[in-house]
Each structure stands twice: as structure tokens, then as C-alpha cells.
Amino acid sequence: MAQNKKPKLAVWKFASCDGCQLSLLDCEDELLEVAGAVEIANFMEASGAVVKGPYDLSLVEGSITTPHDAERIHQIRRASRFLVTIGACATAGGIQALRNFSDVKKFTSIVYATPAYIETLSKSTPISEHIPVDFELRGCPISKQQLLEVVSAFLNHRKPNTPAHSVCIECKLRGNVCVMVANGTPCLGPVTHAGCGALCPTYDRGCYGCFGPMESPNTKSLSEGWSRLGAKEGDLVRAFRSFNAYADPFRKESEAHEK
Amino acid sequence: MKSRTIKVDYLARVEGEGALFVKIRGDKVEDVKLKIFEPPRFFEAFLRGRRYSEAPDITARICGICPIAYQMSAVHAMEDAFGIKVEGPLRDLRRLIYCGEWIESHVLHIYMLHAPDFLGVPDAIHLAREHPQIVQRGLQLKKAGNEIVTLLGGREIHPINVRVGGFYRVPTRSELAPLLERLKWARDAAIETVRWVARFPFPEFEPDYTFVSLRHPGEYPFNEGRLVSNRGLDISVREYDDHFTEEHVEHSNALHSVLKPRTPYFVGPLARYNLNFDRLSPVAQEEARAAGLADGCLNPFQSIIVRSVETVQACDEAVRLIERYERPAEPSVPVHPQAARGYACTEAPRGTLYHRYRIDESGTIREAKIVPPTSQNQKTIEQDLWQFIPQHLEESHDKLRWQCEQAIRNYDPCISCATHFLKLDLDRE
User: In percent, how much of chain A has pLDDT > 70?
Assistant: First the structure.
């Protein structure tokens, strides 16, 4: 990026709940500082002022679900030096990727008021299925501390420091008693990517996998553990099929329990 | 005849993706379309086959700005289905977490999305250059709301601690205690906010609205009450579908909701305020009167004042709830699913949010219907524009376009919410 000029930051939205971009506005203590360090060049949720590209860093929220969006993401890639996906929708297709598991017949049998008005693709796909992505930040929603870390890392040309280990490690670091061992509560912590700070076990519930699969998850072994606690096949399908259902390891594990 | 078109291809400072199209011929408005092009996400379709207990976490993902509203409507609908009553401190904690969401959501809208319209700047960052202390006050006030949600829910967005029957874990008194001083400060900051926004310039505009909101015998409404209007509607939530219906229009990926047969209506802060002024706390009433709203408020541009009054109310209520809190012995009441239908309306920051579920004997969701506030307001927003534009045709093109956008932002529309439910809730085989 040019000397003496603030780097340009852009935020883009696809199919999503807006929560991950809201994380930036939820940085109440840091927002004005961030706004001082970068030029916010495109962030429709926060401002009508739009600056033309190219952009030094683009943050992309949401999954691709319409023909128009499948085109639009290419334009954004072309205009962006670095492109980072934020959240489970952009990184794994999101909760709306549950449609990907509906067989077409059942899906089309759903009655629309006026289906011709709607334009939608049969699958919800992550950004990386369409364009090369420089970094994927996990979470449904993302952690705002990790977001600040990623923005700062890319603007300073270094690698983001976001651990790829499991929620289990975060739980141990927090000194929690294991909910699965001590209480027999089924937990996805052993196979789930870190980043939330082991929130659910800290609140006496099992992890439900909203940060998606960790680097090398042993989902099969965890499923056996769940079965020993009484989980049925249908419970396993649903557990792996939620906010990161279309992420490969979770998709395969849910399919393994479907029949 | 002179023809003009006002086009806004991508509305800024609203949640989600929408556009506006207005066609004017001479001094007549020929067409107004609030277009919602946010892609549909089909929540009602994939809720089928999920467990009743998953509804709060799944429906929260409809909206990152008001996940608590979705969680609250979901748990109350399930509890209605199973005949459960959640009372005492657990009920208070639910009100408290809702207070947190109202504060963060209202303050986001007041300071970052709406105030720039009145002050002629493109966003809160520009506003901060001229008025750093004011924007800092807004950010800290918003943070106070988020602190409630984070403490009770685990995180600001998509909190993890709400369940059917109560919570997974409830805080101790001493965990809540630090919030008390913060919220007393926040109440003062909210009062300052009312006084600040009351001085903004407001266009004269008072349509004859049909307001709809919950009304509770003793409280400003959050989670419970009857649905009432200023036109005599007074029904239980279970009767919702007898009185309201949705229409699917071509230009929008969100259904338009109407009061049968075809009356547009208005939900949200203005409706709640006009129907529940007597339920506001004394301090909120006093500030509202001082702001000139003693006789109610019909001007949607002044919704920013009402949102600020509701922020005072939420801070004041949160203080009260924390002061009287005693930790319950159990974090939730037992839940025994049964085949039943459950209904709930709660008051999301943007207005009434309706959930209806049909559950089978195993606790599996067979059918779901969700009507968010923005789809209920869509028709009223368009009507406002039909009425507002002819009175302001002498304005320059840019100013008129700006005012049209502002008129839409009066409703704090949440387009992400409104588009999740495009399909009919009927699976025909």
C-alpha cells in the first residue's frame, strides 16, 4: 500500500445475519481508533460514503446463494489486495447451507406463494468455492478480538495469531471441569475450532460447534463417545449439521449417521 | 409532463440489503417500491425436523442485531406449547437480557445509523470528528447494553445461555453487582441522549397510523401481554393468525404483513410508546414529557426520541431487576415436550416478533412460522413515502433522496430479519 496513505478497508455482505460485520461496530473501545488507522472505504451497514477500489483489505461476510452474488464476489476479489472471510456463512456456507442436504424433490415440493419471484441457488456455498481467499476467520459469530487481530495482521503484513487447536484446549486453559467427563453432557469441544474461549462449557452446556471443525478433528471417535452417553444416530446428524454443516469434516460425519 | 425517478441502489445504515425505487410524474407519485434483495435463507424450512430445544439457537441466526428477540420468542412459544410458566428470578433475568439487547440495538441505531441523517454527515465516524464526546457517550452506552447480554448470555451476538425453561447457568448476585454502577451511569447517559436528539430538526409529518404492540397489565412490554392497537384490537397472541396475514409481492424477498383484510400497520418503538406510555417508569415518562411527547408521538422522524426514551426505560428497568435479584436454586425449570402448538410474541427492539411452532410427541418441530417486525412495517414504510414525497417535491433531487432514505431509517429496518421467511409454511405432499 502507498506510503503516507491510510489503507482502505472494505466490508462486503452476502447471505448472512449481519452479525459478523456488527462485531466491528461492537468494538466500542477500539472503533474510533480503527477508523483513525484505516480509511473505511465501503461499509454499507455503517455508512453511505463509498470510496472506489482497489481496497487493501476486504472483509467478506455471508455465503453465496444467488446467481448474482456468484458474479459479484469475483468483482470484489479483483478489487481487493487481501480478502478475508469472516464467520461461518462465508467460511462454510452457514446455517443456510442446511438446504444443501435437502434432496431436490423434497425441496421443490415446498410450496412458495409465488416461486417465480425468487432467485436462489440450490446450494449455499462458502466464498472459497468461488475465489481464492487469503484467510478464513471462523465463528458463528466471529470473535471481535480475533477480528481486530486479523485486521491488524493483514495491514501490517504478518500472519494472524489465531490458534487452530480445539475448544478443549481453551477449556483446559480456562480451568473448566470437563462437562462430558464430569456431567455426561455431549460436547463438540474436542473437534471444534478454538476462538470462542470455551463459552458453552463455561456456562455448563456442551459445545455446539459454532466455530466449525478444528484442523484435524477425529469426529468418528467423538461420535462413539456421544453414543456411549446415549446419543442416537439422529442426534449425531443434527449435532454435526448446524451452523457449519457444509464444512467437510462435519458434513461427512453427519452423512455417516444418516442411514 | 416532467418525470423524475429517485433510485437508491443500496440503502446504507440499515441492517441488510435493500433498495428504493420511486417514480414521480409531474407532482404525482406514481410508484414506490422498497425493494429487498437480501437473499432468502429459508429458516422455516430447515427448522422442520429439528428438536424444540434447538429453536432458540437456530432462530437467533436470523439476525445478528437482535438474536435475543429470536431466542425469547422461540422459548416462550415452546413453553406455551408445553404449558410451562417461567417465573420469579428466571423471568427477571429474561427481562434483564432483553433490556441489554434494547440498549445496544437502540443506541446503535440512534448514534450510528439515524443521527447522521439529522446532522448531515454520512456516518458516525464523521460525526466523531466534530463531536467526539457525543459519539464516545453513544459507544459507551451501547457497550453497557452489550455487557448485560455478554454477562447473561456469554457473548453479544448469538448468546449461548438461553434455553427453553430458563438458562444453562444463572449468575450469582456478586457477578451481577458490577453492572449496577455501569447501568446507573447508562441511565444518565440515556437521559442526555433524549435531550440531545429532542433538539434535532424534524420535518412535519404525522400520518394516521394503526399502531400494534404488546400490552402487559403492569409492565412496559417485553415478553408477555396481549396484542393491542389504537383501533380497538385486543387479542391473545394465539389469535395472531386470525387477524394478520402476509402477502408476497414481486419486488421484495420479504413478505408484506397486513392486518386483515388489507390494513398496513406499524410496530416498534412508536407503537409501543403510544400504546404503553402509562407503563413507562417515572423517569422515562418525565424525560418523554420534557422532550415534548406528552401527548404521544405520531411523527416517525421523531422515533429517534422515542428510541432514546425506551433506552432510559431499559436502563432503569435493568437497575431495578439487578437490585432485587436473588439467585434461583435451579437455572431452569423442567421441560416435558408433548404434541402441541405454541405461540409467542415478544417485543424486539424493532417491534413485535411472532413465532408459531407445531411440535410432535417426540419434541420434534413439524412446522414453524416466524413474522419479524420489519416485514410488518414494510407496507407502512412504503405508505409513508407515498405521502411524504408529494409534500417535498420542491426539494432538490439529492435532498429529497436523502429524506426518503431517512424516512426508511425511521423504522430501523432489519432486512436480514425480514427475508428469512419467503416461503409459505406449508409442505404439501
Answer: 92
A74 CA to chain B: closest CA distance, Å?
18
Q: Give every CB contact of residue B391 below 8 A, 6+ residues apart in sequence.
A: B205
Helices (H), B252-372: 269-276, 282-290, 303-323
pLDDT < 70 positions in chain B? 1, 253-254, 416-429
Chain B residues in contact with A48 (beta carbon < 8 A): 12-13, 122-123, 405
DSSP assigned state of B111: I
Best A12, A17, A65 residue to mutate vs chain B (most B CBs within 10 Å) = A17
Strand order in the sheet with B212-215: B212-215, B226-229, B234-235
The CA distance from B344 to B359, in Å, is: 14
pLDDT tens per residue, range A87-124:
999 999 999 999 898 864 454 445 345 555 556 788 99
Grid coordinates of A81? 489486495
Give the best residue of B46, B53, B258 to mutate against chain A (max A CB count within 10 A): B46
Question: Can you give the pLDDT at residue B427?
Answer: 25
For the stretch B70-112, pLDDT in tens is 999 999 999 999 999 999 999 999 999 999 999 999 999 999 9
Q: Averaged over A20-24, what is the pLDDT?
A: 95
Give me the sign of the Cα torsion angle B184, B188, B194, B196: negative
- Is residue A134 over pLDDT 50? yes
Residue A193 has, within 13 A of its CA and on its CB side, a CA count of: 28
Q: Give the CATH fold of the B43-377 domain.
A: Cytochrome-c3 Hydrogenase; chain B (1.10.645)
Which residue do the cell numbers 402476509 mark?
B246
Q: Are A69 and A77 in contact (CB under 8 A)?
A: no
A&B contacts, CB < 8 Å = 180
Q: Which residues pair with B343 in a beta bridge?
A: B356
Q: Mind listing the domains of chain A with CATH numbers?
A: 8-155 (3.40.50.700), 167-256 (no CATH)
Q: Which residues of A touch B12 (CB under 8 A)?
A: 44-48
Task: Enumerate the residues of chain B whose CB falls inside 8 A of the CB of residue A49.
Answer: 122-123, 126
Which residues of chain A neighbour B14 with C-beta distances below 8 Å?
Answer: 45
Which residue among A35, A114, A196 sits closest to B125, beta carbon to beta carbon? Answer: A35
What pLDDT is attached to residue A1?
A: 45
Interatomic CA distance for residues A122 and A101, integer angstroms: 10
- What is the grid cell recorded at B323? 437490585
Question: Closest Cα of chain A to B319: distance in Å?
Answer: 22
Residue B240 backbone phi and psi in degrees, to 5? -50, -50
pLDDT in tens, A47-80: 888 899 999 999 999 999 989 999 999 999 999 9
Buried b (16+ CB within 10 A) or exposed e, B216-231: eeebbbbbbbbbbbbe
Long-range contacts of A224-233 (CB under 8 A, 24+ apart): A225/A180, A225/A190, A226/A186, A229/A180, A229/A184, A229/A185, A229/A186, A231/A186, A233/A257, A233/A258
- Which residues are registered as beta bridge partners of B33? B21
The residue extents of the domains of chain B are 3-40+384-428, 43-377
Cell 476467520, residue?
Answer: A137
Q: Largest Cα–Cα distance of chain A, in whole Å?
A: 62
Q: How far apart are CA B401 and CA B383, in angstroms?
A: 16
- pTM score above 0.80: yes
